[in-house]
Amino acid sequence: MVSLNPIRIMKNNADEEKAEVARLSSFVGAMAIGDLVKSTLGPKGMDKILWGMSSPNGSVEVTNDGATILRAVGVDNPAAKVLVEMSRVQDSEVGDGTTSVTVLASELIREAEKLVEMRIHPQTIIAGYRESAKVAREALEKSTNDNSSDEALFREDLMNIARTTLSSKILSQHKDFFSKLAVDAVLRLKGSGSLDAIQIIKIQGGSLDESFLDHDGFLLNKRVGMHQPQRVENAKILIANTPMDTDKIKVFGSRVKVENISQVAEIELAEKEKMKDKVDLICAHDMNVFINRQLIYNYPEQLFADKGIMAIEHADFDGIERLALVLGGEIVSTFGHPEMVKIGKCDLIEQVSIGDETLLKFSGVPLGEACSVVLRGATEQIIGEAERSLHDALCVLTSTVKEPRTVLGGGCSEMLMAKAVDELASKTTGKEARAMESFASALRQLPSIIAENGGYDSAQLVSEMKALHAMGKNTVGLNMYDGKTDCMTELGITESFSVKRQVVVQAAEAAEMILRVDNILKAAPRPRKEDRGHC
Fold first, then answer.
1. Cα gap 513→535, rounded to integer Å
2. CA pseudo-torsion sign 300, 305, 309, 314
């Protein structure tokens, strides 16, 4: 006779959540992550203190960047991990919108939970969400503006995007200053869009508005070797990546047997001669400054000093990559053919003091396809958050240079998309229409949360915006300075189209993935054998 008891097919410590329990677990995890970062959204959003215990004294970060917060929070819920990963991808793809994408995905899940309770099947909700996301994206594309053909208007667009991005960060008090700094830095890249070419140097002391972009040159946080020229005019620079330590016998496991101490001296002399030959090969190039990625030991440093050459060691790889972009040289590793090597040039190399730091300044550089930004601030936490804020602005600006279309911010784009989705829902028969209405409701939650974070009446403001958009006033959004609805074009609140599109697409896809879940299987942990070794 067959037993009616349930048969367990998984290992002892393995776990399984089924059907409603699994769905509820996923929904709760996703909504909790949204609630965690919700209060940081918008220009009046609050900051979080992240207190890590990895180091003996504990590391402290103060931030309102969604990706940074979620990266620091250890989550155990699988659905929450999906949203954390999504915000990380948003950060790496476009640099901004990390909080928006997490909040929108969690609001979509919150709306889906209500529909599931009404006995609407998840696949029906997913079908409605897919149609909604498609229509929302089309409405967003129709509302875009492209000024890339007019240089002055495009620069103003970039300034407005930078101001909007920085208005929710620690730099909001100095947003005009840092917006100009970020736009100048990105336009110096001449369309390459590689953020590696922008070097951010953090120096404690002073205030945030003492930060600056080095317009006519490049800064390197390194020192010149001992007894070498400290200032060089009309510099000809050889940029290299070569070992300049005493050449050891580099065959692994090799041994040299000697009969007396004088033979050791002969080996050392041979090594010195080898290094001297290498320095002579380098000095055969038409140059008076040598910059190496790797260390330069005392003996070759002394040889360079004897020849009156400025030698700079241990310029990290990013450092010499940027120097090659700025000086018009190339990075070399072998020195047998001086005529084939491209030497970098600049008018002047000198040491400058900023705060407690002494840096090397390269003035009068020929290309200027890389630049240095010096950030000042009272504490390590302030400078760290300023760097994250500036990095977000730089990422958004570089993506705007590649995709120059812009949309209006302040909740205006979300209301536009919600209106388009509502119109689609009113023409749709079947239960998908309910899912579409929920999608529109989730989109309207973003301006509602932004208003709430500023301490304003969100219900009043969002209903006003909804009515005005229905009347055809498509540029109306939230004025967070005065707590009222206003024209976003007049206020210059502009956002990058690529950021906004990425937010809608990723949030819809993440919500769809979590909605599909009906079973959570947790693997048994790997058994650990007892260590019977003696202490």
1. 49
2. positive
Q: Is the pLDDT of residue 491 over 80?
A: yes
pLDDT in tens, 328-354: 888 898 888 888 889 988 889 998 888
- Residues with Cβ within 8 Å of 327's Cβ and at least 6 positions away in sequence, in order, are 218, 237, 239, 344, 345, 346, 362, 365, 366, 367
Q: Backbone phi, then psi, for 57, in 5-degree steps?
A: -95, -5
Place of tokens 């790997």: 526
Q: Which helix (H) or strand (E) holds 338?
A: none
Q: Residue 428 has which token pair?
A: 């749709």
Query: Which of 104-118 are b and which e, b meaning 16 or more Cβ less than 10 Å from the residue's Cβ?
Result: bbbbbbbbbbebbee
> What would the two tokens of residue 254 be?
């090799």
Q: Mean pLDDT lowest for which of 29-33, 196-200, 398-402?
A: 196-200
**Residue with structure tokens 């529109």?**
440
Compute CA 427 distance to the chain's CA centroid, rounded to the nearest angstrom. Answer: 41
CA distance 494 to 406: 7
User: Helix H segments across 146-260?
Assistant: 151-166, 175-188
Name the DSSP class of 400.
H
Distance from C-alpha of 198 to C-alpha of 154, rounded to nearest angstrom: 21
CB atoms within 10 A of CB 254: 8
Helices (H) and strands (E) in the chain, counts: 16, 19
Q: How far is CA 107 from CA 33, 434, 445, in A?
A: 11, 15, 7
How far apart are the C-alpha atoms of 386 and 39, rounded to whole Å? 19
Whether the per-residue pLDDT at 190 is higher than 90: the answer is no
Other CB atoms closer than 10 Å to residue 302's CB: what's the count?
Answer: 15
* pLDDT class of 320 with cuts at 50, 70, 90: confident
pLDDT in tens, 261-275: 888 788 778 888 888
304-318, 364-378, 428-442: which has the highest mean pLDDT? 428-442
Any long-range contacts for 320-324 (C-beta under 8 Å, 24+ apart)? 320/239, 320/241, 320/291, 320/293, 321/196, 321/197, 322/196, 322/197, 322/199, 322/218, 322/370, 323/218, 323/220, 323/237, 323/239, 323/291, 323/362, 323/370, 324/239
pLDDT in tens, 305-315: 999 999 988 88
DSSP state letter for 482? T
d(CA 124, CA 229) in angstroms, rounded, equals 74
Does 147 score more than 80 pLDDT? yes
As beta bridge partners, residue 199 has 372
